[in-house]
């Protein structure tokens, strides 16, 4: 079995009964994919349970489900399960308090590549970050691929999943956290002071941070670009900023 197949089979739950039981159980579900036009009674009942738990649902072509299920019978529905439980934002603050440190948080605004998420979690764990915050929708979840890319760091890192990143930034600011958004045309990162309670916001791989999230940031921080390419990979940019913050702290 090649690595890609292994990734698919480890965190995908296929079929109506398995998905229904997964929703009913305690295992966290990142999202559910349903075949377009699949609207019979059994599926409708499953989707109602998913909506009650605020699990994201997306309609896709049946061919995609055939591929993602790795050849198993999916009956028009699959679910992506997380490799570990998500925590809360309060858990992140609790970890900082237990270490007697000012909160050090990483916020990911619709980061979609699971390899980037895994790499960021790995660096965050090494840099002393107390927790990573991701949105429930339009974001990579804690899949097997993320766990593997993190080299096991996902087991030691708080990862909170929230409904709205902009609102969460308001909450962080109310709790004394200074928010730094990584984007172009901002303050040189070496001139920023990350020594207090801080959150670093990293945006989507293609679009960067959204307009509303950018407006919520206290400071926009940028990395100097000397070459012809005007942006860095999200996990690389996050790593540079986390280690600069660690140095200040």
From TrEMBL:
Q: Which residues belong to any copy of the RNA 2-O ribose methyltransferase substrate binding domain? A: 12-87
Task: Please give the GO cellular component terms listed in this UniProt entry.
Answer: cytosol
Q: Does the keyword Transferase apply?
A: yes
Q: Which Pfam families does UniProt cross-reference here?
A: SpoU_methylase (PF00588), SpoU_sub_bind (PF08032)
The reply on keyword Chaperone is no
Query: Which molecular function GO terms apply here?
Result: RNA binding; RNA methyltransferase activity
| Cleavable signal peptide | none
Q: What keywords tag this UniProt record?
A: Methyltransferase, Transferase
Please give the biological process terms from Gene Ontology that the record holds: methylation; RNA processing
Return the NCBIfam families for the record.
rRNA_methyl_3
What's the family?
Answer: Belongs to the class IV-like SAM-binding methyltransferase superfamily. RNA methyltransferase TrmH family.
Protein name, please?
23S rRNA (Guanosine(2251)-2'-O)-methyltransferase RlmB
Gene name in the database record? rlmB
């Amino acid at each position: 079995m090649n690595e890609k197949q292994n990734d698919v089979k480890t965190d995908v739950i296929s079929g109506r009964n398995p998905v229904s039981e997964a929703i009913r159980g305690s295992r966290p579900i990142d999202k559910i994919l349903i075949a377009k036009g699949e609207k019979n009674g059994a599926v409708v009942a499953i989707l109602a349970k998913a909506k009650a738990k605020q699990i994201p649902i997306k309609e896709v072509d049946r061919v995609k489900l055939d591929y993602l299920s790795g050849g198993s019978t999916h009956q028009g529905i699959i679910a992506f399960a997380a490799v570990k439980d998500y925590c809360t934002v309060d858990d992140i603050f609790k970890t900082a308090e237990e270490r007697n440190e000012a909160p050090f948080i990483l916020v990911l605004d619709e980061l979609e590549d699971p390899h980037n998420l895994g790499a960021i979690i790995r660096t965050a764990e090494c840099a002393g970050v107390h927790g990573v915050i991701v949105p429930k929708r339009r974001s990579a979840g804690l899949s097997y691929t993320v766990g593997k890319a993190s080299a096991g760091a996902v087991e030691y890192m708080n990862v909170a999943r929230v409904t709205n990143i902009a609102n969460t930034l308001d909450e962080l600011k109310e709790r004394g956290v200074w928010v730094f958004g990584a984007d172009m045309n901002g303050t040189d990162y070496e001139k920023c002071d990350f020594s207090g309670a801080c959150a670093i916001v990293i945006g989507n791989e293609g679009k960067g941070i959204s307009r509303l999230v950018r407006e919520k940031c206290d400071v926009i921080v940028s990395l100097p670009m000397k070459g012809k390419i005007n942006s860095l990979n999200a996990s690389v940019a996050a790593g540079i900023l986390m280690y600069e913050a660690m140095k200040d702290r």
